[in-house]
Amino acid sequence: MVYKSFRINFIIRIIVLSATIFLLFYLVAKKSLYFTASLTFIAIIYQVYEIIRYVEKTNRLLKNFLESIRYSDFTRNFQVQGLGSSFDKLQESFNAVITDFQKIRAEKEEHYFYLQTVIQHIGISLIAFHRDGKVEMINNASKKLFQISNLKMIQDLKSFSPDLVDSLLSLKHGENTLIKVNDNDDILQLAVYATEFKINNRQVILVSIKNIQYELEEQEIESWQKLIRVLTHEIMNSITPISSLSTTLTTILDDFGENNTNRFEEQDLETLNEVKMALETIHKRSSGLLHFVDTYRNLTKIPKPNFSIFQVQKLFDNIHRLMEEEIKRNGIECEISINPESIELSADEQLIEQVLINLIKNSIHAVEHTENPKIELKAYMNSRGRISIQVNDNGQGIIKEVLDKVFIPFFTTKPKGSGIGLSLSKQILRLHGGTITAHSVPDERTSFTLTF
User: Fold this and answer.
1) How many structural domains are present in the chain?
2) pLDDT per residue over 266-325, tens digit each?
3) 163 shares a domain with 180
4) How confident is the model at residue 2 (pLDDT cuts 50, 70, 90)?
């Protein structure tokens, strides 16, 4: 292996070159061996070239090493064994650097894979894009929210919501906004937060989008329940003594009048009767108010759902049997559709049945003055893969200004309505982790959709 040593090999080459140069001078001094001198000169040039090429072997190794780093090719190993201890150390250093780069690259790939997994797994929608709308990254939650498989430009979301596109393109670093979107039968309240940063001279906007419709509804219902508890408590405390006192005073006046009839003049008896009538009116109205307040207590006393799995077909059959006579009596056409027919629901069957009966009664009232009245009860899987039950009618409908208020407790459009039915329905759906929404085109179509 000695002949492969770089140092010994180089010394031998220098000695041979020196001997050749000496030979050249000797031949030139003879002045008669020009041809041999020419061949010797060519040999010297060749030896110089070989020495230079041999010496530049280190440069070639270094060049290959740097190219491996430049092009991230860390699969190569540098073999320069047998050229001496200095080259052995050079080989060790090259390969050690390559190994370090391999480790760093593996760690970066693991880190990248970890972040990608987190981004794709997280339930909040994330989108990274440029100011011109070009999308760099979109996670699975966003694809599910917008019902898309891919997104190249933010402007492509205009079919979903033009307001959302305008907000995304105009949001600045640290800003947030709330956008309401009507997506078929769903109402989405999207909370959007934006942050902006710079990567490799590129301005990137990262936005998080979360549907907080359920949270808003839950907070709203809890606020109404707290208000109702306070109001009913205070009203009951105030009205109960009035009702009791009015009854007591009426009894006293009755006894007093019977025992002292001969002592009163006709005018006094008329006054006594007027007082009794006033007390009876006070008692009647206070009793009615107590009944009214007690009715609204139901909004805060909904039983906990007893979940079970049942077929929607069975639920519809039960409701149809219960409402069939009233529907026929009013000359209403009733249509039932289930797609697919095997849909099963995990819920409290009695509570959901109560909600649907209430909605059907509202529809019956809505189509009273409609020609060819029709009510449709349907169940289907919506575009987001959730079970939806819908009650449709072609009645007078609900105007836009009123539509957002129909689920508010105490609010009603019926002359004799209590304003409790739809509020109660909304709370029942909330206990099931679902929602109830209303859409209406007056005198054409009104829909109430239960989504689970």
Assistant:
1) 4
2) 556 666 677 777 767 776 767 666 666 665 565 556 667 888 999 999 899 888 888 888
3) yes
4) very low
Tell me the per-residue pLDDT of 3-20, one tens digit each, with 9 for 90 and over.
456 667 777 878 888 888
Dihedral sign, Cα of residue 12, residue 16, residue 22, residue 26? positive
Q: pTM of the prediction?
A: 0.56
Domain membership of residue 106 (yes or no) is no
HEC secondary structure over 58-119: HHHHHHHHHHHHHCCCCCCCCCCCCCCHHHHHHHHHHHHHHHHHHHHHHHHHHHHHHHHHHH
- Tokens coding 62: 């270094």
Q: How far apart are CA 254 and CA 311, in angstroms?
A: 61
- The parent domain of residue 272 ranges over 216-258+265-301
> How far is CA 414 from each of CA 69, 208, 321, 442, 447, rounded to the nearest angstrom?
79, 42, 26, 16, 18
- 139 and 79 in a common domain: no
Alpha-carbon gap, residue 125 to 160, rounded angstroms: 15
For residue 379, being part of any structural domain is answered with yes
Shared domain for 208 and 222, answered yes or no, is no
> Of 249, 282, 301, which closes a domain?
301
Question: In this predicted structure, what is the pLDDT of residue 3?
Answer: 45
Residue 196 pLDDT greater than 60, yes or no: yes
Residues 371-376: contacts with CB under 8 Å, at least 24 apart: 372/333, 373/330, 373/331, 373/332, 373/333, 374/332, 374/333, 374/334, 374/335, 375/327, 375/332, 375/333, 375/334, 375/335, 376/334, 376/335, 376/336, 376/337
**Looking at the domain assignment, is residue 223 inside a domain?**
yes
Strand 186-199 relative to strand 202-211, pairing: antiparallel
State whether the Cα torsion 313-315-318-322 is positive or negative. Answer: negative
Q: Which of 409, 411, 402 is nearest to 438 (CA)?
A: 402
